[in-house]
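Hello again,

I reread your note about wanting to compare the complex against the isolated chains. To keep things tidy I'm splitting this into two emails, and this first one only covers the full assembly. Below are the input lines as submitted, including protein chains and any nucleic acid or small-molecule components. They are followed by the predicted structure of everything together. The single-chain runs will come separately.
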Amino acid sequence: MPAGAAIKTEARGTASPLPAPRHVAIIMDGNGRWAQSHGLPRFEGHRRGAEAVRRTVAAAQELGIEALTLYSFSSENWSRPQKEIGELMGLLKRFIRSDLQELHAKNVRLRIIGEGHPTDSEVQRLLDEAQALTRDNTGVLLTVAFNYGSRNEIVRAAQELARQVAAGLLKPEDITPERFGETLDTAGLPPLDLMIRTSGEQRLSNFLLWQAAYAELVFLPVYWPDFDRSWLERALAEFGGRDRRFGGVAPGES
Ligand code: IPE
Ligand code: IPE
Ligand code: MG
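Full-complex prediction:
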């Protein structure tokens, strides 16, 4: 870069905007701080967060996003107080019971990634039921990461491939990035284009580490319960202004 040249941080100017992202993931963060800032218990933040999920799925559908992946509960979230975990599980059950039929009617295909619930058979049954009911739908692909941790997902994939090698079904040199990706929980999803995190935190917190290799990251100064279509549009506009290079050179440069 010539001395004095400004680093470009503005939108791409006259270059044509990027096409809309096919696959958007969201780290839905800030429920607790939203509640605190309103003088309410954390539970109320989570309850309002569930309403933001509803709005966001509808907005994604209207905006033509093909795949939406939401981080709902991390494998590290088990370290929270039992009371909060119980409330989160209660909300998840309520959400599936109240919204599954409507999601199905809207042609949404639901998929769960992560390790499910090892001890609450009712949560597990509802998750299984939601996937089974919507499996042939052709609308938005809504993936919910539940009891999900990316390192764990990668290790499980490595174990699965190791088992196949040990059984003589696969040669070590057949383990390519493509093959590895197909062994992850997200197999079959379009490549991740855009990763959004709300609440102002700027980290991935063990979410889609492999898949985010070339995703654009957008951190928004809004607590998740206040997220709505206009915030999603803001993230999409920011995405549209980025230069995605995938290791190459920017168009027009040589
Ligand atoms: C996100 O909000 C919800 C979950 C992680 C389940 P938080 O509960 O993390 O809210 P903050 O980060 O404490 O504000
Ligand atoms: C990430 O948020 C997990 C979800 C949004 C489900 P956390 O609130 O758990 O992340 P940290 O602890 O701030 O990194
Ligand atoms: Mg948080």
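For quick reference: The domain at 18-240 is CATH 3.40.1180.10 (Undecaprenyl pyrophosphate synthetase).

B.
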